[in-house]
Amino acid sequence: MKRFVQLSQISRKTDYDYCVIGGGPAGLMAAYELSRHGETLLLEAGVASSERPYTDLRAETTDSVLLSDHGTHPANPWTLRGPGGGMERYAGILIRYRLQDFDRSSVFAHASADPRWPIEYEDLRPYYDEVEQRFGVARASGLDPTEPPSCAPFLPPHRTSARAALINEAFDELGVGHFPTPLGVNSRPFARRPACTHCGHCNETRCQTGAKASLLPLVLGSGSNRRLRLAHAVTAEALRVDSTGRASSVECLDTVEGRPATVRARHFVIAAGALNSCALLLRSTSRLHPRGLANGNDQVGRGIQFKLTGYAEVRAPARALHGESPTLFSTTATTDFYHQLPEGGCGGFVYDASAPGRPDTLRLHFVISEAPMSENFVAPGPTASTRPNVVIRHSTHKVDRLRLRSLRSIAVGTLSRIDRRVRVHEEFNATGMAHLAGGCRAGTDPRTSVVDPEGRLHQCDNVHVADSAYFPYAASANPTMTLIANALRISRQLAQQS
After folding, report:
1. Fewest Cβ atoms closer than 10 Å to its Cβ: which of 48, 181, 182, 454?
2. In angstroms, what CA-CA distances link 11 with 6, 36, 38, 123, 263?
3. Which domains does the chain have, with CATH numbers?
4. 142 in the Ramachandran plot: left (φ > 0), alpha (ψ -120 to 50) or beta?
5. Residue 388 banded pLDDT, cuts 50, 70, 90
6. ∠ CA 47-131-97 to the nearest 5 degrees?
7. How confident is the model at residue 189 (pLDDT cuts 50, 70, 90)?
8. How far apart are CA 426 and CA 238, in angstroms?
9. Residue 1 above 60 pLDDT?
10. Any coiled-coil ranges, and where (predicted)?
11. What contacts 24+ positions apart, CB below 8 Å, involve 47-51?
């Protein structure tokens, strides 16, 4: 069984073919794919095998600052720091971006950064299919009106919880379509993983049975692959370039021993999370790149995007949930308002979400993506090991606030069919920055983008970005499946071309 070790335990005498920076789902997928073609080293800032509560892990990595409409706040640029990243504690929602998500230019007139991807859904479709075949997604087919073309489901959907059944009744009364939430949680044994036993709601916890899809078992189980080495507790401080302008090494810090180190490689793949990937490039200054690697046109770090979200909730009717065993985080969803809101404008994703510790609560999560804005950007701290690690400047556009309120009204109107005493909470992304995207946006014009369609830096051809920093537009759907599929596409193309 392969495992993560300290950098001091790994030989750095020879150049690696590939160095992957970041051990979240994108980095793990890239490292696994690249190691089939050459000597590969993965560097991960977090420490492996932590069983501590999610809230504790989040609190200790709140090492950045957010300057926003709400004032100045401590911020967390990580979904979750550690091998596997946020996917180790995610709710299991695996859903593809919609066809229209790759070009939303017609509905985001207020965007100051182009939301168009330089690739289309069909470019990603075979990689989506491969990810689904490898991990399994429990879903229905034909019930989601926005569902893009795809392979047939490998797993049937999970049973609808009693909580979701009540919400479905409200949807039906309003004429709103609904479908089982697509989940990367086995509804029957698949891919050497057991079926889910419904032992809990999954979100923010490790799966106790192995039924939930994760990249870590794939990578850690590749013990026969001697070309893949995994190092944890190591921060990447800066990439260094040679006289030709190509990246030749990455300067690191072993945070356990407090020792600096240098790793040399022929190719580098950055997957440190949207904000940290930007910060790494901006810290990588040199005579050839005085404002940061690939930042000659002042585009690195610009166009970062948050998700705008909230919850609406009511008490379930007496005895309605009597005797129900623990269920998954979500088992019903609607995309009836995904493309268009009743008042106009691009809509969002709505799904039921369990309320931890409150089994009698019915809750709808409503999510919209914001328009990419050049004015929203990230700047680095002096080094990756200092506080603040990054400084984020972000303002929510008034049009996006109105879009969120419109989707909120839909969620409230749905739950008011069950109980008129609806409570609403809109989330402010300060210390809970999940689903971050942008900052190294992909495009064909180097004046307005950082990487090309294949994820290669326009201004440094042996460095690729494979995480959500690549995304010109982060859709309202959960990004994990797109993140993995795109990392697989980028790394496979890199391996074939190098």
Report:
1. 454
2. 11, 19, 15, 38, 10
3. 7-497 (3.50.50.60)
4. left
5. confident
6. 100
7. very high
8. 37
9. no
10. none
11. 47/82, 47/232, 47/233, 48/3, 48/4, 48/82, 48/83, 48/232, 50/82, 51/206
pTM value is: 0.95
Residue type, 51: E
Which residues contact residue 468 at a Cβ distance below 8 angstroms, ignoring those fewer than 6 apart?
Answer: 26, 273, 274, 435, 436, 437, 438, 474, 479, 483
